[in-house]
Amino acid sequence: MNEKVLLITGASSDIGVKLIDEINKDYDYIIAHHNGDESNLKRLKEELKEKLILVAGDFRDENKTYEFIENIKKTGKIPTHIVHLPAGKYENIKFSKLTWDRFQNDINIAFRSLVIVLNAFLPLMAKNKFGKVVVMLTSCTTNIPPKYLSSYVSTKYALLGLVKALANEYADKGIRINGISPSMIETKFLENIPELIIKQNAMNSPTGSNLAVDDVIPMFEFLLSEKSNSITGQNIAITNGNIM
Question: Positive or negative, the Cα torsion across 123, 127, 128, 131?
Fold first, then answer.
């Protein structure tokens, strides 16, 4: 294997930015996906220069998702490692208040985008007999989910199914595909959740707090490294002290 190239979808998120900051030294190039707003990535771009390649893509739109793939290919850098972070808005909404459009939007952003990305790059990884894929899931897939998150939870279960199916299909090709399921992380992703719910979740944790971004980065780093070569098809919970 020549170059190590990490593709991070949803790279402008708090987790994406921190991940790039922590592990950029391990890669020759990092391709960072963003949806128009690259402000969180500007500092890293100034620091890493040509090592960090910013590629825009609106995953709500199928054609623009395929354009995103083509723009990656134009860079000449083919991912050897992939981290998938995108998700629709995290909001508490009763099922009776949701329409199919909301489910479709969440599926497009998180699930369809990963299908398109992996369809483009897994065959290339298979030719090289190597690849690492890590997908952000949720503790909702390892325990009883909270109420009023049906669209979010359904989409994450679809992602889990894809992780399991592809891990088995590509296991003999040297490709390792895993999911990470953390409990609530205090990031801007929670901006539409009432503060009371966030505080109650922290109070119910054995640690008395919610997870921080720094609590989940080491697991991404581990699953992307050669130390995890014997692990695939797993949904790894980061529980903040809770027993699942």
Answer: positive
Looking at the DSSP assignment, which residues form a beta bridge with residue 5? 29
How confident is residue 1, by pLDDT bands cut at 50, 70 and 90?
A: low
**Domains identified in the chain, total number:** 1
| Count of residues in the chain | 244
The secondary element (H helix, E strand) that includes residue 123 is: helix 113-128
User: Which of 13, 7, 32, 22 has its CA nearest to residue 219?
Assistant: 22
pTM of the model: 0.94
Average pLDDT of 141-162? 94
**pLDDT-above-90 percentage for the chain:** 78
Burial of 163 (0-12, 13-18, 19+ CB in 10 A): buried
Residue whose token pair is 């190239």: 5
Tell me the residue range of the domain where 96 lies: 5-238
In a domain, 60, yes or no: yes
CA distances, 172 to each of 39, 176, 209, 217, 227 (Å): 40, 9, 41, 27, 18
| CATH number reported for the structural domain that contains residue 30 in this entry | 3.40.50.720
Structural tokens at position 235: 């949904």
* 221 in a structural domain: yes
Express the helix, strand and coil content of the chain in percent, nearest 5 each. 50, 15, 30
Compute the distance between CA of residue 206 and CA of residue 19 in angstroms, rounded to an integer: 26
